[in-house]
Design brief:
Layout (H helix, E strand, L loop, with lengths): L2 H10 L8 H7 L4 H11 L4 H8 L3 H15 L4 H10 L17
Helix pairs in contact: 3-5, 3-6, 4-5
């Protein structure tokens, strides 16, 4: 899914307008690197694209994604992206990283 399509899906999903306490608490369980990967998942990047962007091996990215899904208690990348949006990790223009730093 393209980053543009991901953002459109997130904007159109009910309940994604305000951060939810439970969602924020679940996101806070993630390491900084896992938050970075979560933001890239929400941008619609594949594991290979994430590896190219932040330079870990494909296996490491896969491990991060698995850990993210487990910690967030979701079963798909789309659900993880929706939770990231509800937790306030993303801006409409995708200009923030998981640590909140402008790109």
């Amino acid at each position: 899914m393209s980053p543009k399509a991901s953002r459109a899906l997130l904007r159109g999903h009910p309940g994604t307008d305000t951060p939810q306490g439970a969602d924020v608490a679940r996101v806070n369980l993630l390491t900084d690197r896992e938050r970075d990967v979560l933001v890239l998942i929400a941008e619609g990047l594949s594991n290979a694209d994430i590896g190219t962007r932040i330079h870990p091996s494909a296996g490491t990215v896969k491990d991060h994604v698995s850990s993210i899904l487990t910690k967030l208690r979701v079963s798909s990348r789309v659900q993880a992206a929706l939770l990231a949006e509800r937790a306030g990790l993303l801006r409409d223009d995708g200009a923030y990283t998981a640590r909140g730093n402008a790109r």
